[in-house]
Every structure is written in structure tokens, then in C-alpha cells.
Automatic annotation (TrEMBL):
Name of the featured protein: Plasmid pRiA4b ORF-3 family protein
Domain Plasmid pRiA4b Orf3-like per the UniProt entry, residue ranges: 4-165
Signal peptide segment: none
UniProt source species: Mycolicibacterium hodleri
Cited Pfam families: PRiA4_ORF3
Length: 370
């Protein structure tokens, strides 16, 4: 994977805060936003913009005016559109400005190269408020010392290159093993059954790798014997990683590029939908608290749901959440977001941190606040 090396410096902050990271050269601006959030240690709680001498790029918010009026939608833009020097603005209230320079080609894989300085806590009042915060923390006689120390908690931590490197890699993402298996099994093209389902050879090959997908303990015969496999087959076709032509199923060109695979899988989780909210919170809770019975998992997810979610005109209940988690369990299982081999206890899956890193970053924030 080709990468580009960036050096980002947080403007007007003392002690200085800087990060050097290698990001995929084909990175889109929404992806770059997530990578910079991770590299610095922000929590993605506010709006942002990318600013060049010629253009400003940002998020389009339905029914909301943007500033400046000629702001361009960042969705279709890429890192290459920003030139060799640009600004990344985060939190228009606190006004954090990051000066970013493109240093040239990066290493063979994305990751954190270097850095120094602790990231300021969110909502501390910008550069001026942060300076006052540090003064109060440094002086035990300061009237706000105890209050500020309690408010900051353990959020003001030194830069950790190894941990940051791990988080940056997770944001870039990895292809879930289950997805890789199915793409490899149909790599040369397979003829589907008259009913449009996968042939027995593919079904049994997947069963060897995922025996808990068919708990009856005997060789599966048809795709419907492995419900998660059917969900995975449908999903990969829906996001354009598999294509049917003349009765033969084969991978598309995008399936040969790991970054494209991850992008397309993530596109299946529509932002601001109840299903995506439930999935993200489920992964976050499991990442923060470890394996949980379904009823306890649902209760914790329900507590974290933002206000406004309703079903049939009434607020969502823990039982509603439990039903929603169960409905989402198939997609979470086939993408290795959860491991439900033991149906009594739900456990985070192998791909959760690299496919939906935002959910596990939430878990990190919750842990820091405890």
C-alpha cells in the first residue's frame, strides 16, 4: 500500500504538540479526519474543516448552513486535493488549528512515525483555556487546582507512539477473515445453484472455518444451513465486492484492494440509523467491559443510547434494544465484529477494532472517564 507522510502541529499550544504519521496515499478527507483524530487523541465530538489557500472542505449537514458559503463537500475529495500544506480545523468553539505539511512518500504500511506532546482535553476552552488549565494543575495552591484535577482525570496523557501506531492502523482497517475466506473461495468464479445460492463445495469449505455457523454438528448441504454465510454472500454483493454474471459469482476489481474492501464494508453501516447506532454501541460496550450475557449487554447499550430514539411513538426500552442486537447479530457475526460461538455470552470479535474503530475508541473514552 502506498503511503504519504504528514507532519501535523497543533498551533499556539505549549508544550508543543505534533504528530508525524503515514497515511494511505489514496485517503479520502473523511478518512483523513478520522486518522488525524486518532493520531492526536481527539474524540471526534465536534465539527471540522480542511483549509487550503484556494478551498475549504467540510461536512455537509442536512438543513444546516455552512461557513464559508462556498465550502466544498469533503466526501468526494482526497488528500491529494489539499496540496503540500494545509490546515485542519477542529471544534469551531475551542478553535484547534493543526498546521499540516506533506513530507513525501511514507513507509510500506500506514502508522505513527513520531510525535510529542499530550493532546489537550476536549472542551477545555481552546489554547487560552488550556494554558489556564495547565497553570491550575501545576499549582497546588491555585483555587481551581482540585476541581481541574478532578475534571481532567487521566485524559491528559503523554504521547505514546506504539499505542498511537496501533490506533492509526486500526482506523485504516483490515479485511475481516470471514470476508477474505469467501472472496478467496470464489476467486476463480463459481456457478450458483438454480436458486441463486452458493454451491455445496463453498458451503462446506466455509463450514470448516466457521463450524459454529451450523450448530447441528454434521456437514452442511446448502447455503441456508449456514445463515451467517447467506448474510455474508448477500452483503458482499450489496457493497459491490462480488458480482453475478451469467450465473457465475466472482469478485469485482475492488475485491483485490484491501483498502477498497474495508471502505465498502464500512459503507454498509449507514450513519445516523438505529441499526448502526446499536451495532456501534454493542461493540463499544463489549470492548469496554468484556464478555456479557445478552440481557446485561442490552441494558448497558440502552443506557448509552442518545435521547430521541423511539419505536411506535414511545422511547426505546431495554427489551427493544435486546431485539435490535439480536437482529444485528447476523451481520456482526459474519464480519467478525462479535464472537457468538457461545450464544449465552457475547464477546467482541477479531475484526471489531479494525473494521469499526470508532466503536472501540468510544470504549477507550469511557474507560478514561471512569
Amino acid at each position: 500500500m502506498k503511503t504519504t507522510r504528514l507532519r501535523a502541529v497543533l498551533r499556539d499550544v505549549e508544550p508543543a504538540v505534533a504528530r508525524t504519521v503515514d497515511v494511505p496515499t489514496s485517503t479520502t478527507l473523511p478518512e483523513l479526519h478520522q486518522l488525524l483524530q486518532t493520531a492526536f487523541g481527539w474524540t471526534d465530538s465536534h465539527l471540522h474543516q480542511f483549509v487550503t489557500p484556494q478551498d475549504t472542505y467540510g461536512m455537509e449537514i442536512p438543513c444546516e448552513e455552512v461557513w464559508p458559503e462556498d465550502q466544498r463537500d469533503e466526501t468526494g475529495a482526497r488528500l491529494a486535493d489539499l496540496g503540500t500544506e494545509f490546515e485542519y480545523l477542529y471544534d469551531f468553539g475551542d478553535g484547534w488549528t493543526h498546521d499540516i505539511e506533506v513530507l513525501g512518500p511514507g513507509g510500506s504500511t500506514p502508522g505513527s512515525v513520531d510525535g510529542h506532546g499530550a493532546c489537550p482535553p476536549e472542551d477545555c476552552g481552546g489554547t487560552g483555556g488550556y494554558a489556564e488549565l495547565l497553570d491550575a494543575l501545576a499549582d497546588p495552591a491555585h483555587p481551581d487546582h482540585e476541581h481541574m484535577r478532578s475534571w481532567v482525570g487521566n485524559r491528559l496523557r503523554p504521547f505514546d507512539r506504539a499505542a498511537t501506531d496501533q490506533w492509526v492502523r486500526r482506523v485504516v482497517g483490515e479485511v475481516p477473515e470471514s470476508v477474505r475466506l469467501l472472496i478467496d473461495l470464489v476467486a476463480d468464479g463459481v456457478k450458483l445453484t438454480p436458486g441463486g445460492r452458493l454451491p455445496r463445495t463453498v458451503v462446506r469449505s466455509m463450514q470448516q472455518h466457521r463450524p459454529h455457523w451450523y450448530p447441528l454438528g454434521r456437514p452442511a448441504s446448502i447455503e441456508d444451513d449456514l445463515p451467517p454465510l447467506g448474510a455474508l454472500h448477500d452483503l458482499l454483493r450489496d457493497v459491490g465486492l462480488l458480482r453475478l454474471r451469467h450465473g457465475v459469482l466472482a469478485p469485482t476489481r475492488a475485491a483485490s484492494d484491501d483498502l477498497a474492501i474495508v471502505r465498502r464494508l464500512r459503507s454498509a453501516f449507514d450513519a445516523n440509523t438505529f441499526a448502526t447506532e446499536i451495532t456501534g454501541l454493542t461493540i463499544g460496550v463489549l470492548a469496554a467491559h468484556g464478555p456479557l450475557p445478552l440481557e446485561e449487554l442490552a441494558a448497558q447499550v440502552n443506557q448509552l443510547l442518545g435521547r430521541g430514539w423511539q419505536i411506535g411513538g414511545r422511547p426505546v426500552s431495554p427489551r427493544d434494544v435486546q431485539t435490535a442486537i439480536t437482529q444485528q447479530s447476523s451481520i456482526m457475526s459474519v464480519l467478525d465484529l462479535i464472537d457468538n460461538a457461545n450464544w449465552r455470552v457475547w464477546t467482541i470479535g477479531a475484526s471489531a477494532r479494525s473494521l469499526l474503530p470508532g466503536a472501540t475508541m468510544l470504549a477507550e473514552v469511557w474507560s478514561n472517564d471512569e
